[in-house]
Amino acid sequence: MEPSPKPADATSAAPKKRGKGLWIGIAAVVLIAIIGIAAYYYMMPPAANISIVDDGKCTPTGDTACAFSPTSYTATGRTVTWKNNGAVDHTVHFFANSTATRPDNSTTLGPGATFAPTFSAAGTYYYYCSIHGWMKGTVVVS
Ligand SMILES: [Cu+2]
To answer: What separation in Å is there between the alpha carbon of 90 and the centre of ligand 1?
Structure first.
């Protein structure tokens, strides 16, 4: 007998099946990666427009290391995001001389916290940190 055709068929069929499985595996990995990246960006908080910075102390004599950066910000839209990139608590409180329809003040923002009010009207909004009164800033909404 000649058993040679059977092994030849087996070897020629095996790589074909393995190759298909490999491509399905690669497609699955790519699909999972795309879903993962999309979920990551969806879950991410919006990028901050104004960074709150400090030296971890904010001594009451007017520590200039504790500040809003930039101190004056011109918004491109109606929502502005502050992020506390410092090590101590801060707030964003709007002065009464801002445009009358100013948004609500923030609650206390711990390190890493964000505050993103939407301004309902164009205007110039003056604000300060109620914990460190010398920290002040301006937002211009058009
Ligand atoms: Cu502060």
So the answer is: 4
132 CA to middle of ligand 1, Å? 4
Tens digits of residue pLDDT in 50-76: 999 999 999 988 899 999 999 999 999
In the beta sheet, which residues pair with residue 104?
none
User: What is the residue extent of each domain of the chain?
Assistant: 1-44, 47-142
Beta carbons within 8 Å of 25's beta carbon, 6+ residues apart = none
Q: 47-142 is classed in which CATH architecture? A: Sandwich (2.60)
pTM of the model: 0.69
How many of the other CB atoms lie within 10 Å of CB of 73? 18
Q: What is the dihedral of CA 111, 77, 130, 87, to 10 degrees?
A: 20
Q: State which amino acid sits at residue 124.
A: T
Q: Which residue has the tokens 């940190």?
A: 129
Q: Three-class SS of residue 132?
A: coil
Residue 79 bridge partners (DSSP): 118
Instruction: Tell me, in angstroms, the distance from the centre of ligand 1 to residue 64's CA.
Output: 11
* Ligand 1 center to 78 CA (angstroms): 23
